Structure prediction request, 93 residues.
Amino acid sequence: MNQIIIQLGSIVISLINIYMWVIIVAALLTWVNPDPRNKIVQILYRLTEPAYTFVRRFIPTIFNGIDLAPLIIIVVLQVVTILLSSALNSLIV
Prediction:
């Protein structure tokens, strides 16, 4: 039973890491002003905008014209990853 939980946890950690890369790529795209009709750009914005909206609802994220929502989300996801990893490591021992 522990093995199943550990495997599911590692899948969740992998999905979190993939989502962090999606956020990084979407944030970098805002610097180059991509074509909004591009399918990849649309997918990236659809994947990241709900998280940005959620964070912006509780925290003002724009400082001096720079949106810090991606940074806040990445920090929170890193904390979740660390907590989840330590919880899974405690199951191993």
